[in-house]
Design a protein that fits this description.
Elements: H1 8-16, H2 24-35, E1 41-42, E2 53-55, E3 60-65, H3 85-108, E4 112-117, H4 118-121, H5 130-143
Parallel strand pairs: 3-4
Antiparallel strand pairs: 1-2, 2-3
């Protein structure tokens, strides 16, 4: 086991700055969807999992998952920290199990659920995310508007 190079206080401070909503990737995705004419709700607390983006007209939900926090398979950002390993494995396992439960509940309620991974959008200023937005929009449109 390796030692953390930061003190407990500094590590806690760093971790407290990690946001769960209105992240740069989430804002980029929302901005791109809005520019294409989609209207949505954000972090709807009435739905399981408090989805990042809810498109009621299309009965579609988009989760923008962080690769580390939600264990994106075979992604370089989905690593296990070398310190406090047992804690992190438990934490991330709980996250992925909770994601599965939310997916099942939302599907049972008739929602279409899309997952966009942080790494797909992470370097928005260095890479063109248009192909990703095209795929998301094509998927939403293929499902068609729903009567509410």
């Amino acid at each position: 086991m390796t030692m953390d190079i930061l003190s407990k206080k500094k590590r806690s401070e760093c971790m407290s700055k990690i946001r769960s909503k209105n992240t740069k990737p989430e804002l980029a995705l929302r901005k791109a969807l809005f520019a294409r004419g989609f209207r949505y709700r954000v972090n709807d607390t009435k739905l399981p999992g408090k989805p990042d983006i809810v498109l009621p007209k299309y009965k579609t939900i988009i989760f923008l998952h962080g690769c580390f926090w939600h264990r994106h398979e075979e992604c370089k950002y989905a690593y296990t920290p070398k310190t406090n390993t047992k804690f992190w494995i438990n934490k991330i396992t709980c996250n992925t199990e909770r994601d599965k439960v939310h997916l099942q509940k939302l599907t049972a309620l008739g929602w279409h659920v899309l997952t966009v991974w942080e790494c797909e959008i992470r370097h928005e200023y260095k890479h063109d995310i248009t192909p990703l937005i095209d795929r998301v929009v094509d998927t939403i449109i293929a499902q068609g508007p729903q009567k509410i």
